[in-house]
Design a protein that fits this description.
The structure is a homotetramer. By secondary structure, the first copy, chain A, is mainly α. Chain A contains two helices and no strands. The longest helix of chain A has about 40 residues. Chain A binds a DNA duplex (16 and 16 nucleotides) through α2. Chains A, B, C, D: It holds the Pfam family GapR_DNA-bd.
Chain lengths: ~90, ~90, ~90, ~90
DNA sequence: GCGCATTGATGGCTGC
DNA sequence: GCAGCCATCAATGCGC
């Protein structure tokens, strides 16, 4: 295992604080993610309550996302081909 | 946020709008989730840049999360026991 | 951890043999997979030697695979919709 | 299996066939890989049906693989040392 | 040595 | 309510 800024003269507490800060930032972000995931579930549940077929709804979302990804993919391929023929993308 | 109940007599276009609203809300939330996920990656990348071992860092996060879950679990069991013996939790 | 056929009267060596057999079958299959993976790498290397752009080649393969998956996906969705409107698929 | 060298003067359609051949060979190999992967899943499923803990089973496989790699690694180092002291490996 | 691509693991959702 | 399935996410390995 390696340690950051392996400098004997360095103030030690700062390293500890830095690590602590990193961990806390990540944990905070993960909490936010969870909150949003829960919101998504809520929306689906509500939709279900309004008579929508959740399974199909999920498919709709997935398809729209896939289409968006495809567009991005096509752009990437185009760039690749342009590079391959010596054009600047 | 409130929503109209699922009324078969309702004007159909409105339902269309409702569906559209649902899809857009979900997609919006998913985008937010992605933004946060990217933020998390950034923090890890930054930590790596500061010499931290990302793999181990992830373990730290995972362990703390597991411990938190376990504590919650223990609390729940404790509450159960307290209720079982007629105590108010 | 649970154990299979937790029967005290059972012949013990058979359990050991069964587990051994499982592990060996998996390891044998994994070896086969590795062989084939190496073959794939060889083909890419050869293609590269013939002047093909491997990165683009990989994209081609990926796109063809994606398209195949999409066709399957569309079939699945069609089935869903048919079911949703009460048709037998 | 042998292949014609990449000759710029070569008839172009043949190159097209060459590309096609490459793609088909790769796709064929990928299919084989998938077949074997499915076989592996089957074995795990069967093991599960016999009461084995799949998660642990996977660990067993992983550990044995790691150990095998380590042994190979040690052999390689040994060979290096033997060569370094003028011994034939 | 880094980034990418594949592969494996985990957790959530659906159907029985 | 649980098992199987699927989708997401992390980890390993490969190539540049």
């Amino acid at each position: 295992m390696t340690y950051p800024r392996n400098d004997p003269d360095m103030d030690e507490p700062i390293q500890g604080n830095q690590l602590k800060s990193i961990v806390e930032r990540i944990e905070r972000l993960e909490e936010e993610k969870k909150t949003i995931s829960d919101d998504v579930k809520e929306v689906y549940a509500e939709a279900k309550g309004n008579g929508y077929d959740v399974k199909i709804l999920r498919r709709v979302i997935a398809i729209r996302k896939r289409d968006a990804n495809e567009r991005a993919e096509e752009e990437a391929i185009l760039d690749l081909y342009l590079q391959a023929v010596g054009e600047t993308a």
